[in-house]
Design a protein that fits this description.
It is built from 9 helices and 7 strands; from the N terminus they run αααβαβαββαβαααββ. The chain has helices at 17-28, 32-39, 43-53, 72-81, 93-106, 144-154, 174-193, 199-209, 214-222; strands at 62-66, 85-90, 112-116, 129-135, 155-166, 227-233, 238-244. It has a 7-stranded mixed β-sheet with strand order 3-2-1-4-5-7-6, sandwiched between helices. Helix 3 packs across helix 4 (72-81) and helix 7 runs antiparallel to helix 8.
């Protein structure tokens, strides 16, 4: 993606995308979980569970959750997969503060830890993890290929990456309804409930720009994965991608 194509949350700053995304998530961390579930009508919870179940057969013991945010995806993975250790990384300290509260409340400090880290330069040695997950985070990478290359690097040989991301439905009338909801309703709801309404204008822009479907699996193969699959969910509103190192 060239600089001219890069979609950013804020148009009135010279900060790079990475810094803008971190600032955006810091700003919306308090309402993020509520708005996520509210605006997806709770379907995002079903998507997350299905994505995590992709790993059930491989029984990963060390799992990395990239762009972990408030930790919901990782917490669901702990419930379903029962790994020995989960590490969540994110560039937003505000989101991680919410995640730490949840971890402490559930008494999972020995099993789940979070750290401030850049998804494009992960602070782990090669082949550290049995599995890597990313839920609704890859479209926020400043350099998509660089981020996916680093995910590939920290995976053990034979390890699996599971990526859940919004995609663009193609069939009538879902395509039209989706476009209206994402471009009109989502920013409106964000403006009412969030102190940073621009975050919810950025959402449809970033989804529109994201190379979904085969374009994304092609990138996964290009960075080194031997096998990559895309499984569209709910009429193509979102897609579960799996890739094997």
């Amino acid at each position: 993606m060239t600089a001219s194509q890069t979609v950013t949350p804020y148009k009135d700053t010279d900060a790079d995308k990475k810094q803008q995304v971190a600032d955006m998530f810091d700003n919306i961390s308090g309402t993020y979980d509520f708005l996520n579930h509210f605006m997806s009508l709770g379907i995002d919870i079903i998507w997350r569970k299905k994505a995590i179940r992709s790993l059930k057969a491989s029984k990963p013991q060390r799992l990395l959750d990239v762009a972990t945010g408030t930790g919901d995806f990782a917490l669901e993975a702990i419930k379903i997969l029962k790994p020995a250790k989960v590490i969540g990384v994110d560039i937003s300290s505000g989101m991680l503060a919410v995640a730490r509260e949840k971890i402490a409340k559930k008494g999972l400090s020995n099993q789940f830890e979070v750290a401030l880290a850049d998804s494009e330069s992960l602070p782990f040695t090669d082949g550290t993890f049995d599995a890597v997950t990313v839920a609704f985070g890859v479209r926020n990478f400043e350099n998509l290929e660089k981020g996916l290359t680093d995910i590939y690097r920290v995976l053990k040989p034979g390890g699996m990456a599971v990526i859940l991301e919004f995609s663009k439905p193609k069939g009538f009338p879902v395509k039209q309804l989706y476009h209206f909801y994402f471009n009109r309703v989502t920013p409106f709801i964000g403006k009412i409930f969030s102190k940073d309404y621009r975050a919810y204008s950025y959402l449809p822009e970033s989804v529109a720009q994201f190379p979904d479907g085969k374009r994304f699996t092609d990138i996964l193969l290009r960075v080194g994965f031997g096998k990559a699959l895309a499984r569209p969910q709910t009429f193509g509103i979102c897609t579960i991608y799996t890739a094997i190192k």
